[in-house]
Amino acid sequence: LAVAPRLGGARPGAFAPAGLQLSRRFSAASKAVKVLASEIKHEEEQYEQAKEIKNFLKNSPFKLVETPGDVNMKLERELGEQTVCIEWQLTNPFDPEGDAEGGEEMSKEATELTVTVENKKGSGMIFYCSTQTGEDHRFVIGSVRTYATAEEKDRSSSYHGPEFEDLDDKLQEALDEYLAELGMCTEICDFVDAMAIDKEQREYVQWLKSAKSVLEE
To answer: Deepest in the core among 86, 124, 151, 206, taking most CB within 10 A?
Structure first.
């Protein structure tokens, strides 16, 4: 008797009708849309902008520059013949390790930032800093880079200067005071930390809405 050939390795449902496969795909998309809608509702109900952000923007001489969908932010101001620009990025407010241990929102982490002071001729200095916890001195300087032209400023291979802590103590103190004169203070550090988390939250909600919109099309 002739024996029908076996379809070796065939998986159950591997040859499901095209219509059934399409139905399953749309069913999964519909499920994801419902979950996304629920998450959006939850995040929007829980969101409240930190008071540090509102108070700072109301009273500061700095102007905030940010673009929806862009992780970068900056504060700008004119100070005599100089332009001062403070730049940083959004940051994740949650600690995966803390979440795994049942922890809640993590304690404040350092936010990396740069402070650029530039004169009308296009030369200037870039201070590579980060915020730190505490009340007296909320930022630390890692290094200081100088540049004479816009081309030199944008060159990624430019020398970033020595480690700040390796400089003479008096020079460290003088440069630290110079940053303070440019406007670096506790209020700015509080704003930078708060805005880094606030921006991430707003971008996350926008991502949820974008994903929901794509799946609904």
So the answer is: 86
Global pTM? 0.81
Q: Are 115 and 139 in contact (CB under 8 A)?
A: no
> pLDDT in tens for each of the 217 residues of the chain?
444 444 444 444 445 555 555 566 578 889 999 999 999 999 999 999 998 898 999 999 999 999 999 999 999 999 999 999 999 999 986 655 555 554 444 456 799 999 999 999 999 999 999 999 987 789 999 999 999 999 999 999 999 999 999 999 999 999 999 999 999 999 999 999 999 999 999 999 999 999 999 999 8
C-beta pairs of 49-54 under 8 Å, 24+ apart in sequence: 49/198, 50/194, 50/197, 50/198, 52/187, 52/190, 52/191, 52/193, 52/194, 53/191, 53/194, 53/195, 53/198
* Opening angle at CA 57, ends 55 and 59, nearest 5: 70
User: Using an 8 Å Cβ cutoff, are 186 and 135 in contact?
Assistant: yes
Of residues 196, 184, 206, the one with CA closest to residue 73? 196
